[in-house]
Design brief:
452 residues; alpha/beta; 16% strand; DUF4942 domain-containing protein; SAM-dependent_MTases_sf; S-adenosylmethionine-dependent methyltransferase activity; nucleic acid binding
Length: 452
Amino acid sequence: MSTALAPQRTVADLIEEYEAKHAAIEHAISSFDDAFTALGMAATVQGHFVEPVGSKSYLSASTLRANLLKSGWRAVYNRLDIAKIASAKDKKLFDQTLASPPPLTMETAKATFGDYLIRPRFHILRGLAESFTALDPAYKSHSKVRIGVKGLPKRVIFSFGHYCSGYGFDQFRDMVNALAAVRGQAALEWCEIQEMEADHKAGEDATFSARELMRFKAGRNDEAILVPDRGITVRKFANGNAHVFFDRASLLAINRGLAEFYGEVLPDAEPEGVKPSASTAVSKDLQFYPTPRAVVDAALEFAHIPNPEHYRGRDCPVLRVLEPSCGDGRIMDALRERRQNAFGIEYHPGRATEAKAKGHAVLTANFLDHPPTPEFDAVVMNPPFYGRHYAQHVRHAYKFLKPGGTLVSILPATAHYDHGELQGEWRDLPVGSFSESGTNVPTGMLRMRRAA
């Protein structure tokens, strides 16, 4: 007897199977109808029915094809082991997309999953950052996650309620799985959760250490599996809160993973007390990280910049909006689409020329040296992130606002969580918002209003 393993099916094989079955749906329905008729005849003599021999639901080709499509996408997802790479947020988005998925072709499969296979480490680390930044502000600080820094929390708090369910438990599971992915461990098993509940009912802390546990298998005997050392201990309290403590190894893995993801591309985490000299003010301002379109749109919405699409036939208000240090005019591009009156100031002659070539009104000058005139309804800006130098830009830009005007600035998260020099309403941007521009430094937006 041959013991050779069957070759593993490729994505192309799965899509070929999907296409063949998609084309054969009507034939499958016809075959089922014939089989049901034959079954009825098998329970009668000469077709004389005395009682119904069974019932058959109506089968719709469109319904079956919809189910086949979802099954095909799930098969590709599982074949590529996307669950081991994707962040918890991306997994939820995939489940949401599966409710009404796009056509399944090799092209759409590549477009959907290709980046996970090209950059698996990026997605694993992004999952870690997304999970931990939702737990404690310290994880949003670039400076506090640098290698060797001892400021990371050694515990986090979840609200489990009285059972292992709900938002708090989902956060806990996502955190454990994100850390497991970075450490190359398997995802959390349900038997580990059951063991945790048993420990808590006995009044003990639950330690997720390496051990052998029994995993339930439907329709079969339970099987023993070896679960890894998660490096965490969970202490549960009567109010439903659970305190999760990290051991030295897991804390180091968190530290290294976040530091690797955030990187040192932008020097926004300079040592405390170090200030740039006046002679370097302009050269440091020449950092250029183009603002991704999703970030631009988020900033314009945060600044309440009118959008003609929302007015539906009514006249859309036109505001005069300033983009300081505008680079090649990414924010002004979006302002023009909204039919707003945009003006930019840019020190770098090449980028100023690019913005002008698009038809934007741009002054080639160092923004910090330009005298402020309070003539703008709004300022939307992505200033240089160097150290705390961004604060000088924001304070100067604020002086350009009319009474009642609004300023929105894109800033490193350290501006809010560490430095706190600027006062206003803060909103975090999604993890990795600037990845396409070459940095994963955590960012957010600050909104300031000038009194009327």
